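Hey, resending since the last one bounced:
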Amino acid sequence: MTVLKTSLRNFFAHKGRMALSATAVLLSVAFVCGTLVFTDTMNTTFDKLFQATASDVTVSAKNASDTGETTSRTGMPPVVPASVLDEVRGAGGVKSAEGTVFSTSVTVVDADKDKLSPSSGAPTIVGSWNGNDARTMEISSGTAPKGPDQVMVDADTADKHHLKLGDEIGVITAVETHHARVSGIATFKVTNPGAAIFYLDTKTAQQTLVGRTGVYTNVNVTAAQGVTDDRLKQNVTAALGHGYKVQTAKEVAEANQKGVQSSLNVMKYAMLGFAGIAFLVGIFLIINTFSMLVAQRTREIGLMRAIGSSRKQINRSVLIEALLLGVIGSALGVGAGVGIAIGLMKLMGLMGMHLSTDDLTVAWTTPALGLLLGVVVTVLAAYLPARRAGKVSPMAALRDAGAPADARSGAVRAVIGLLLTGAGCYGLYVAATADKAKTGSGWLGLGVVLTLIGFVVIGPLLAAGLVRVLAAIILRVFGPVGRMAERNALRNPRRTGATGAALMIGLALVACLSVVGSSMVASATDQLDKTVGADFIIQDDNGKEINARAVHAIKGAPGLERVTEYKLLDATLTTPDGRVSEDETINAADPTYPKDLRTETVAGSLADAYKPDSMSVFEGFAKKHGIKLGSTVAVDFKDGRTARLTVRAITSDDTVIDKGAMYASIATAARYVPADRMPLDDLVFATAEDGQEAAAYKALKAALHDDFPQYTVRDQTDYKQELKDQIGQMLNLIYGLLALAIIVAVLGVVNTLALSVVERTREIGLMRAIGLSRRQLRRMIRLESVVIAVFGALLGLGLGMGWGATAQKLLALEGLKVLEIPWPTITGVFIGSAFVGLFAALVPAFRAGRMNVLKAIATD
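The structure tokens again:
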């Protein structure tokens, strides 16, 4: 009980000092809990949607996806004949059945040719209005479509794009562009995560999406009373045979949930990873806080030991304070996490993904995990200071001698740190010289972990040397005040090293990712310059295929020397060694493709691969299966017959664009794949006549703008910029997440300075008494903060650039051979770290300046 009272008294005696440490715990726990609540809420939203929209049993084509995604490379959904509907109605246990037509291979535009697509990445769906949709949507204005000139739109899309009754829209499909006017607006009864949905009448939907009537993409079946979904599935399967895909509502919902879950898990674990980094940074803050609090209470600890307190009791007292800190910080963090989740939901709403707080899901495991993580991390971080406090002998403490064996432990720490750093550097060296990226990536991960730990452990030794160098450059110009700031930073190298290490972690990751991102852009740009011979690349930015009507418009644009079509066909390959390779892709293109992409070969000529019944394979595949020029490969096209193609070329693996591609001509593929199953073009390449580049560029844009606004024309400059922007957006997102760790590190600097000011109260009073002005005192503290921040930045940037350069060596094995250091970013981060130091010193410097001189001198 005495230990508990002592711990409580000490905890509440240092409320302000504990607050910053608690804030670090709060932020880390909040990020973890916010991530879990947000992803759980999204799962709940999708679960409700899938359960509400799925019929008891769904019948679709055998080659339709399990998730009900109604798209294919032909641009038209897989369908079943209308006769299936009558057969299903005759099955036992069927209450009702209805045929529907849906597709996601569509683009919808308004009268101004602006796309009416979700900005969240959710699909645009066009289909027939049916009874199953009527269960989940309510017509809030107007009427359902009743003829070819009418279309109904969901209320969220109507609000976003300011659509109203009577407005004209165009539905662009692989078959045609269908124009209609808005006849009605339907509102979801469940939460719509962001899809844009348009409804036509059944006959118009069939003609627009598939090109013919008498077919359906799905048959929705409702069970009679007392008939289970599983029993209904058996009955329907018995009636139809096994030529169709028959799924229960549960199976459809689970397939959809699985697809969504995979995407959510990527985001979930990435965000949890950044929360883990914040926790790691927070550990340094907590260690520093308790180390300094223990140091400030050395005499108090000595008195407690002198009157009978054991080492265990002293140790326990400090750990109880840490437990209180962890519990309070974690509890607040759980509440803040729910707020973060709601904020993320609002942010997603601005991006077009509508999530309702009615679906807010806080599982009991979320606060439990948050509390557990926060408390365990805090107590573990405080263990070393607590153990150090327990080792203080009564007489040494009463003399303010501090903890014993500091010099010896410092030497041991330096040796361990050097060994870890050396081992990490060796790991990075092995990674940089590896022959295979897979082997090198393991060594890279090991090297990153060991060098990070090594730099953390060796931090005090680095601080003792590096701070002197920085002081000579930065601080000496400020005269005596600068020298005092230098001595303060060097007074406790362990503390300075730990404070700098907290900032080092975040900045090391920033530097590493900056180097990798810049190198990827530079390498890809270099590859484009060396290999792409076409002037223009036309594609759909949402990954959809280019329909034949758009290709015809492209070929009709003036000023073009050639146009190359490029398709992807799924196939199963049987190689000369007798092995079967499934899920392969044949890249079918026009014979002009070798001019558009200058691909290096290790055997044969790529132009020969476009001869009849010929193909190319890539180097790794050829070695694996013993393929040589003249070998025959059986290619079983998924949507066609089996071809026996002769290998006329083997392409090099030393490339980035189309790495691992196997080529054949479109003419060869057309011999074995029926025209109605032939995939649409994945890309189209175009090359202008000499001197007509600018005119051809404008002509291509004009040819597609009005009728096919979903396709983008890019020249090589555009393509490079797009690549740079995509990687830049990804890096900015990562930097934003890393900002959490940097904020925690800044709190560590603030806490270290604040506690340092308290620790030096008497010294500050004496300096003020002999003439140091308040302005000089504040400057001294600010300079100390700047040099600590710059010290951490140097370590982080140096370490991060080393990691990034090693990672680039592995990327070089995949064809990304250019190493580029983003010096503007590195310089900006370095300068920014100095401002971070200034910012962190504002409150401690202000409090030090306001200190009463006489009271400070009288402080014991």
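The radius of gyration is 34 Å.

Sorry for the duplicate.
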